[in-house]
Design goal:
Elements (H helix, E strand, L loop, with lengths): L1 H16 L11 H7 L8 E5 L8 E2 L17 E5 L12 H11 L3 E6 L1 H4 L4 H24 L7 E6 L1 H12 L4 E7 L20 E7 L15 E5 L16 H20 L7 E2 L3 H5 L25 H11 L3 E5 L10 H23 L17
Parallel strand pairs: 3-4, 3-5, 5-6, 6-7, 7-8, 8-10
Antiparallel strand pairs: 1-2, 1-4, 9-10
């Protein structure tokens, strides 16, 4: 009986010493209203690893020491959200963390800057992106002192979070390993010079997914490679009527996040084709992967980094951005298995007719009006 009581006391002592899980800031419309009169900025760094996959812990302890679960030899993925006028927790957050940890044994740092993003004044949130980047740079300097490496840092920024990632990269002169921009915000950033937004010079490798270029996202290419699913404007499965409420506003914008997660979690290969325009892509003019030196055409998602060296060489030698297109369906996991094979077929068919015409001295060209989707 005494032994049992002793063990119970030990368990109770351990549970008392264990810090509670960190939670993403719980804010609301009231906080957006308060921000009009009393603007505030607060940043919390939430660490997840395979040792604490569901219970976030503070990256740094109160005495500024590094959390024991952070492994400086492993990759560190920084997840940075965007504008949060309603103050709610991003719906994709926990699932994103789970999928990343299933993919690899890594450190995941969720950057909670909700108190700074929760405001009715979008322009104020835009100004706060610079402040967040400066604050993050101080935390990063501390990590470097503990033995972490910029090469191992992968920033995944959503909307305004993409530009925060770019500003962090600029502070470190482009020496961070990778930045992935998930539909980087367009308002207040479109048309800005490279110093005022995310740019391919901000990291060793920058990949960008555009899904709402005529709304909340930015149209211009920003990275070593820019993906434009379904042309980058409207996404299948998203509401077409304003009467759908908030989903009408955010669905296209958030699709970049869900495509990235689907590429990680499923067997979908989001093969994308380099092209001048979505129109050329749709007519089957851009199914050639020869530019990628024996590799397949690039795939959207976490594995895009496999094409890093080719894409970097391409932009250094020609100064041309690589813009690629693909089509998806409207429901998770979004992959369209048939489209790529059809445009490859059309490409081969066009080459065949071209060879036949040359052999017979006949001028024959496959009509460019043939559209792949008419064969679906």
């Amino acid at each position: 009986m005494r032994v049992y009581i002793f063990l119970c006391l030990m368990c109770w002592a351990r549970s008392e010493n264990k810090a509670p899980c960190l939670e993403f800031s719980h804010l609301s419309l009231k906080d957006s209203f308060r921000d009009l009169f009393n603007p505030q900025m607060e940043i919390s760094l939430m660490l997840y690893t395979r040792k604490n996959p569901t219970c976030a812990e503070s990256l740094f302890e109160k005495n500024d020491s590094l959390n024991i679960n952070f492994n400086t030899s492993k990759k560190a993925v920084w997840l940075i959200h965007g504008y949060r006028p309603l103050g709610s927790t991003p719906s994709w957050l926990q699932n994103f963390v789970r999928i990343l940890l299933n993919q690899d044994d890594m450190n995941i740092i969720v950057v909670d800057w909700n108190r700074g993003a929760t405001t009715f004044l979008y322009v104020r949130a835009v100004k706060n992106t610079r402040k967040v980047a400066v604050s993050l740079s101080r935390y990063i300097q501390n990590l470097l002192k503990h033995g972490a490496s910029l090469d191992n840092f992968h920033f995944i920024g959503v909307s305004l979070g993409a530009h925060i990632s770019g500003f962090v990269g600029k502070i470190f002169h482009g020496r961070v390993g990778r930045i992935t921009g998930l539909d980087p915000a367009g308002p207040q950033f479109s048309g800005k010079p490279s110093t005022g937004r995310l740019d391919y010079t901000d990291a060793d490798f920058v990949d960008v997914i555009h899904t709402d270029t005529n709304g909340l996202g930015i149209k211009q290419p920003l990275g070593h490679i820019d993906f434009y699913p379904n042309g980058g404007k409207k996404q299948p499965g998203c509401p077409k009527s304003i009467f759908s409420g908030l989903e009408f506003i955010k669905c296209d914008h958030q699709r970049a996040v869900y495509l990235f997660m689907a590429a990680l979690e499923t067997s979908c290969n989001f093969i994308s084709f380099s092209c001048r325009s979505y129109k050329d892509y749709k007519t089957g003019l851009c199914a050639d992967c020869a530019d990628f030196k024996g590799k397949s055409c690039p795939k959207l998602g976490y594995q895009t980094e496999l094409w890093k060296d080719i894409l970097k060489e391409r932009i250094e030698n020609t100064t041309l951005r690589t813009t690629v297109f693909l089509d998806t369906v409207g429901t998770n996991p979004f992959c369209n298995h048939h489209y790529a094979s059809i445009i490859l077929y059309l490409k081969k068919a066009r080459n065949y007719f071209s060879l036949q015409a040359h052999a017979n001295h006949v001028k024959y060209k496959m009509p460019s009006s043939i559209k792949c989707n008419s064969l679906l």
